[in-house]
Amino acid sequence: MNFSSLFSSLFLLVLVTTSVTAKDERPNIIVILADDLGYNDVGFTGKTEINTPNLDKLAADGIIFENAYVTHPYCGPSRAGLITGRYQARFGMENNVSYSPYDKYMGLPLEQKNFANRLQEVGYQTSVFGKWHLGGAPHFQPNNRGFDYFYGFLDGGHNYMPGEVTVGGEGYFLPIMRNTKVAEFDEYLTTALSNDAARYIARSKDKPFLMYLSYNAPHAPLQAPQNFIDKYAHIKDKNRRIYAAMVDAMDEGVGRVVTALKDAGEFDNTLIFFLSDNGGVYPEEWLPTLDWADNSPFRRGKVALLEGGIHVPFIAHWPDKIAKGSKFKGLISSLDIAATAVALAGAKDGNNELDGVNLVPYMTGNKTGNPHQALFWRLEEGPNIYAVRTPEAKYMKQGLPGVGRSYFDMLADPTENNNLVDQFPAKQAKLASLWNEWNSKNTNSVLYQSWEYKKARNDFYDELHKKNLQQAKETKIDIIE
Ligand code: CA
Question: Is the same domain home to 275 and 402?
Fold first, then answer.
C-alpha cells in the first residue's frame, strides 16, 4: 500500500468512525397538550389571574401564535387530528373514542399513522405521557401505535388523586399504566406525569426524542392538592378556584420538564409546542354548571365552532432557532405539529398525505404570511355543523343558541360579535365551495357511539329472543304422567 492509498484509507476510517460516533443533531420535539384550557387562563394570552410563570417564560422566549386552531372543539377528534397531522374527518373519526378494551373497532383507525410512527421509523425515541383516548383494545394502545414508552391512562379522563384509584376501577378510576402494565400512581396525577416525563428526559440523551405530554389537566374532575388551592383563596367561586390550582400545577409540571431538559443539556436543541386540545368549558344551557374557564375575548368554548371552542393558546419554544419574543399572526393549526416534526426528523409524510404545514420557516422568520389559506371543521359529518375560516372571514353553522348560520369578518371582528350572514353572498359562496371541496375528500364517521351500541345490542337480543321462543314452541314436550 503506497502512502497515498494508506492516507485515503485512514481518511475513510476517520470518516466512518466520525459518522458512527457523531451525536444525532436532530432536535428533540416535545408536544405539551392541555385539556379544556380556557384561552385566557394562561398569562401569555393576557390574563394574570392564574400563575403560569413557566409557560409565560417559554412564550416570552419563543413564539406566540395568535391565530392558532385545533381541528375539533372537543377531546378525541382533536387529538386524533393532532397526532396524525390529518383532519380526523379524512378517516371518519368524528366522535370521542369510548374506552372499550374488547372492541376491536373503537380507536384511531389502524391504517392511520401518527407522528410517533413516522419519527420512530427514522430513529427517534418516542413517548407519551397522560391521556391517550385513542382506543383501549391492545392493538390501539400506545405501544402498538408508534410509541416506545407510555405512562398514563387509556380513557378520556382520569381521577387525579391516587388513593381512590384501584386495580379493577373503571372509567376515570382505571389504573395508571406504564406501557402495558399497571404502574405506580402515588402523587397528584399532573405532578406524576410531569415527573415521569422529566425522568424520561434524564435517561434519553443518546437519541433525539419525540415526547407527547398529554395532560388531562385542567379537564374535570376538579381536583387539586390543597397547597395549590390555597394559592387561589381569593377566588370566590369554588370551581374556578380549584381549576386555577389545576392549571397552576400543570404549569409547575412544565417547569419540571424544562429543568430536566436543562440538566440534560438538551434545552436549546428541543422544540417545545404547547397548546390546548380545545377551548375551556362553557355553561351551555344544557350544562349550566360548567362555568370555570375563561375563553375571553372569544365567545363560548368547548363544543362550539365559534372561536371560544377552537382558537387555542399555542406557543413554540426552541432557543437554537426561534428568536425571543416572536409573535405570529398567520393562520396555523394543530395539524402543523406533525408536519413540522416529520420535516425536522427527515421522516416520511406518506406521499404528502399530511394536512399540516411545516412551521419551521415561519418560526425562524424565513417565511411570512399565512401557512394556511383556509382551515376547516365539521361535526357529525356536516352539513349541519360546519365551519371554514380564511385569513379574512369565517362562515359557519351550528345549532347553538344565538349562533346558527353565521358569517364573520375576521379582520374587523375577530371576536365574532357581528353576524353578517348573507350580506356578502359572493364571498360566502366562495367559503362554502372551499368547504365542499375539502369535505369531498372526507369519510363518514366510523365510530359507533354508545347509544348505537345499545340499539344494536337490543336488536340482536330481540331477534335472538324471538328465535328462542319459536324454537321453544316447536320443541315443546308434553309431560306424560
Ligand atoms: Ca379536551
Answer: no
Amino acid at the residue 480: I
User: 133 catalytic, yes or no?
Assistant: yes
Structural domain for 156, as ranges: 26-363
d(CA 124, CA 261): 17
Nearest of 207, 29, 228, 234 to residue 125 by alpha carbon: 207
Residue that finishes a domain, picked among 333, 363, 393: 363
pLDDT digits (tens, 9 = 90+) for 102-156: 888 999 999 999 999 999 999 999 999 999 999 999 999 999 999 999 999 999 9
CA 278 to centroid of ligand 1, rounded, Å: 5
Q: Which of 155, 300, 144 is nearest to 219 (CA)?
A: 155
Structural domain includes residue 12:
no
Enumerate long-range contacts of 144-149, CB under 8 Å, 24 or more apart.
Answer: 145/108, 145/114, 145/116, 145/117, 146/113, 146/114, 146/115, 146/116, 146/117, 146/118, 146/119, 146/120, 147/116, 147/120, 147/212, 148/120, 149/125, 149/179, 149/200
224 vs 414: CA distance, rounded Å: 34
Domain count, the chain: 3
Q: Which of 75, 219, 317, 372 is catalytic?
A: 75
Q: How far is the CA of 469 from the centre of ligand 1 (A)?
A: 47
User: Domain of 321: which CATH number?
Assistant: 3.40.720.10
When mean pLDDT is compared across 62-71, 427-436, 442-451, the lowest value belongs to 442-451
The overall pTM is greater than 0.85: yes
Catalytic residue among 72, 133, 317, 372: 133
The burial class, CB within 10 Å (0-12 / 13-18 / 19+), for 407 is: buried
